[in-house]
Amino acid sequence: MIPWKLWSSQIDAVVRYDLKRYWHGRRWFGVYLLVLAPVALLALRWIMAPARNLNANMDSLKFIYAGFFQTFMLRLAIFFSCMTIFSQMFRGEILEKTLHYYLLAPLRREVLAVGKYVAGVVATVALFLFCVTATYLLLFLPSNASTAFFASGPGIPHLARYLTVAILASVGYGAVFLAVGLYFKNPIVPALAIALWESFNFILPSALQKISVIHYLNALCPVPLPRSPFAVLTEPTSPFISIPGLLVFTVVILAIAVHRIRRTEITYSAD
After folding, report:
1. DSSP bridge pairs for 52
2. Which tens digits make up the pLDDT trace of 10-66?
3. CA within 20 to 30 Å of 250's CA: 20, 42, 147, 191, which one?
4. Which of 9-23, 95-109, 164-178 has the lowest mean pLDDT?
């Protein structure tokens, strides 16, 4: 009989302990900067610029936010934040010579890996739900047309979809970089390779485009951006396929990471 109750309580304990360490750690300065910088810039814009009548330009604002979200938020902020947080979950413990404390505890390594992953997802999602909500509101609210945009227009549904994409991005990239941190001592080189794969995904053959996180995330964004003239045309993926497809991809990557941690031997002298 599988001890689900025991495992869930152990996962909860790992999540709580790791979250407490994350919030008090110094490694996250770059992550906080990526989260707070766009919020601070848009807040400054609102303070310095009076409310304007942007009825005619509301569509332009939607495209501006779509460009900001799909370029800065997905490909830079969330991507590199997940690299910073998840790739160091085990590598950081090894460098600090603290991983053996976890391994001496009476819990399975699979449970430890899942607990650490869930803690990273909770922390990343919390940060970027705040960032997405704040930047979205700060961009649209200064307009005199914002009341109609949020009350009877697409304002709230679009925000909900952007928040969903941010959550799924944290889930997908978190799994990828958890595996990277377990297979590579230095995550920079594989992270750059993954960044290139995600950034130039649009020029790959249709079948290869689906072996990426960004392919499924772009399909869920409410405002599509114009395609590059070099893009390989492929059929847009339905949200009913994108979300399960991304979750299946995440589970596969997590299984690979768990397989690795089960066979990992801790030798601090080698690091």
Report:
1. 143
2. 888 888 888 887 776 666 788 888 899 999 988 888 777 655 544 447 788 899 999
3. 20
4. 95-109
Contacts of 209 by beta carbon, 8 Å cutoff, 6+ apart: 201, 202, 215, 232, 234
Q: Would you say 148 and 58 are in contact if contact means Cβ atoms under 8 Å apart?
A: no
Which has the closest alpha carbon to 181: 253, 252, 111?
Answer: 253
For the chain, give every domain's residue range. 4-270
Q: What's the CA gap between 173 and 86, in Å, rounded? A: 9
**pLDDT score for 54:** 46
State both tokens at 37.
Answer: 């910088």
- Please give the model's pTM, rounded to 2 decimal places: 0.88
Tokens representing 157 are 């549904």
Q: Distances in Å between the alpha carbon of 8 and those of 11, 20, 161?
A: 5, 18, 30
Phi-psi region of 158 (alpha: psi -120 to 50; beta: other; left: phi over 0): alpha
CA distances (Å), origin 145, targets 86, 94, 159: 41, 53, 16
| Residues 147/53, Cβ–Cβ less than 8 Å | no
